[in-house]
């Protein structure tokens, strides 16, 4: 029947189909629907159905709910909902004409449905069914009286009705208690109590019910109600001693005494005491004796009476553990005199017991808690003597004693009484036999070492730590104390070794763990303490390493940043004094890693709140300045310098973008790009060069964006940033043979503010390998010369260098093929130089000599090409430059004139060939 679809059925069909269903996933949904619909169904809405059919349908549903619950894994609430529906259905039938059997069925169903609702925690609904059951019982009673039964039969029937009435009243009491209605609950319960004379078999049930009410109300601190219920339970229980034994009565009385005690009112003290005395008379129990002692202590009973009460406990042969608990109770209530007297009595009473050691140790513990240390030491020394002479404590008791000793030592340590702490640790040490070494002994040695360190007894501390290391070398605390001792000895190497070992143990997958190290925060705590200790003792190198590890492993962002700032303050002065380039490079690498850690921490650890963002900006300012300064100090190592500049840039991105930050970002990116370009020029492989050039281009693009923002904040007309960006971008595009180079240059040629130096640089870059763009170089040089000429005062040195490059590029030495420029254009360059030399002083003589030589060689080249007129022209130009030589003129004048004369003779002989020149 799993395939039944209940969705489109009416109420009657659902009930009928449900009662023939073994199982279906939709049953919970169907139950909820029936429960909801029954509230809107009455007899009129089911007028077409006869009473007998409704009653049959209700009974079938009831039986199905009761019998199928376990098999279908239905909850109690689902079951009671179906009973609720069945009960409502059966009650729709005409009661006045119903048979006694039908009426009894209605009463039973109402009773059980109501009890079901109480059990699932819905007492309000339950009351409705209990009221219906009561009404049904009244009707049944009337029917029974009206019927002509025999007297005996009538009595039997009345008894049955009264039995059901008792149950309904008890259920109503249970419902009232659940609703906190004490008045109604007590009324119902007392009515039940009055009926016990006629229903003696219900005595045990009502006794337990009242006890349960007492327990429940006591849980909710309703002591007055609890005492009422427990009193009733006790009274009812006494009515039938055969069904309620003395143990149960004593249990009720103990809880009643507890309720009076918890009521915390002086007037109930006597009642509590009376109740517990009755309980102990009814059935002696350790719990009763203990509770009596609690009551006596609460009542401020004189010591003499207390002493009588505790001696009574020994008379009852209570076990040792119970007696010791009584002692502890007395001590907790500051009745030391009675407690210690009783404790001595216990020790004497149990002296032949194998557990006597437990009493002795308890005595020691109590003495120490009461600061009776001399007496405690006497007893400990007695135990030590016994332990050494064969009267040894059990392993369990030795553990307890060790715990007592260690706790006392720890308390002394906390108040800085280190000598006293050592004495208790010495006591503990005596219980470790020869060869009996374990991790607890290593821990003991570490604790002793800590005391020695505080007492400035370094040698003894070192001895204790070495002993601890011998047996537990992988313990982080062992290494921590080794670190502290090395620091105190100013042994930096040993301290570094210890802190390195400590760090490796802390970061291992399964560190040798003590109770303290169950979380990562405890790991960093040790590193923090190590750094602090080294700093306090002036050991900068170990402190720096501890701070470095702390920054690596801490999950607290602020702690990481604080550790790094402290580390930089320690290390930076040392870096400047570090001998040897390799050592300095190593330290720079270390600082680089630390700055990366700071960057990651700033990037990950802050939320969007303004206060934390301000804090992050302040931290970022500090670290970016450090990165900047380190970059400046790394001028001899360009690669490292670049890394520091880039870190400074990345850190600055967490700062507000004001003018200062934008200038710093611009400079960082320019410097980084410059280094990448320089490294690209030296790259050994094309792949490496391409990588470096691409990186430089990326930084250039970022810098452009920053430069555009920066220009909006002020006048930066004197800043060379834009020119440098142009040159960097040109170099990258040229060396990478970027197809967009020409379009890029088109915009460059039109820029109005570029200086001659910029064009000269473009020319040089255009000729650097692997790029070679002579046409671009020529154009750039021409623009440079044009700018030189436009100046009011020409810088002849710069002009001469620029002209040298231009002429050399236009007419390279040894050129035998067509030149890059027409010779007429080249001739114009020489004429321009001559004109400048004629009107300006200071033109470098060596450049004039070079021009003379260049023009002479060009003339010879023309001669060899049979271009005699051009040859005469260029050689004559050389003589014009000769005229402007200074001190060098005498060295060349005679030779040049002679050569020129010879050339002219040759030219005269070849006059007939002149017309051969094109």
TrEMBL record:
The keyword RNA-binding does not apply. Signal peptide: none annotated. Keywords: Meiosis. It comes from the Eukaryota. InterPro entries: Spo22/ZIP4/TEX11, TEX11, TPR-like_helical_dom_sf. It holds the Pfam family SPO22. GO terms for cellular component: central element. GO terms for biological process: apoptotic process; chiasma assembly; ectopic germ cell programmed cell death; fertilization; male gonad development; male meiosis chromosome segregation; meiotic gene conversion; negative regulation of apoptotic process. This is Protein ZIP4 homolog. It comes from Ictidomys tridecemlineatus. The gene is TEX11.
